[in-house]
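DM from R.C. (forwarded with permission)

"hey, sorry to bug you on a friday — could you get me a structure for this? deadline for the figure draft is monday and I only need the backbone to look sensible"
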Amino acid sequence: MDKSLQVVVMYLLSHIGLIFFMYPKDIIESLHVGHWIAIVLGFAFHVGFLSVYLKGLSYFTAHSVIDIFWGVGKIFAVILLFPVTLYFLMIMIITVRAYSEIIMLVFLGNTPLWAIMILLLGVSLLISAQGIEPLLRTGLLIAFLFLPLLIFVLCVSFQNADWRYVFPLLDEQAASLSFIISQPYLLSFFAFAGGFMFLGFTPPHIPYKRQIVLRASVLLLPFFLVSVYVPLLTFGQNTASQFQFPFITAVDTVEIRWLMFDRVTMFFMISLICFVLLFLSLVMWKTSLLIRRGVPWIKPIPLYLLLTITIFVVCLMIQDWKAVERLFWWNTYLRLYTVIVIPLITLVLGIRHHRKGAASA
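My reply, with the result:
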């Protein structure tokens, strides 16, 4: 049975949950003018390597990316997939620690940070331990319940927009693309690199049409543009660059008197927390698959518990937001490796497999 809809929804939600917090600040810090160039360039990078990844997977109809690498040799697979496993662990640590602090700052100011981290990890553990099929069904339910709320918030977030801040559209820095090697811009790739790797972990259990996923990726571009341009249009470049979370601050200025909640931010945060929980569950499931392939004697439930406890302990050791930002930057190298090297190697192995099949025929 084709499950392209479930896969597409999971792909979209896992990226949307990462867009609206740290990504706007990174892009706003990267450029003074012409932010659309940075957004479109990053999105083109994402679609390009997504296409490479899906093309490589298309040569193996019933194999996951782990099976593909393992088929070449165990040592080969361990060497290349160990950084990916480490990257997934780092993603979970950064996401849990960063989003727990964001949740505390926005509307749970009196709740201890450790309690919020336990909540995020506990729910993610329960969802991921069920396996990929229940995880995908949960994604459909979350999309049905919360995606309309998010779209509503995005529409009303333009309430205080001053469209004159769109101009100028270009300057020398933006046209020269010199910003692509800046630290803020490299950090922004966290939002592009978060979710699409799971597409190689689902076969052969979850059949889907890869072209549908590729076409659906276009739906993410408006979210990236809105996340950056809402704070820019509301405050202007100079003021927006001063905020830690520009989009949240911009949404917090919206006033709708007929709404039963005092702050539209409540809708926004509730929706994104659900998306982040889905993303954490997905990453935890992928990490468990990688570890169990290398260490097959570990049972799934003890492994999930061990992962959860390890992540929680490491998160407790992170003292403040400065430490989160340093960890975020150190993870850049693993992020680029996972998003660039793994898709390219998958494509090379796929072409090699196809040629061997054609030669044997």
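R.C.: lifesaver. The mean pLDDT is 86.
me: no worries. The longest helix spans residues 74-106.
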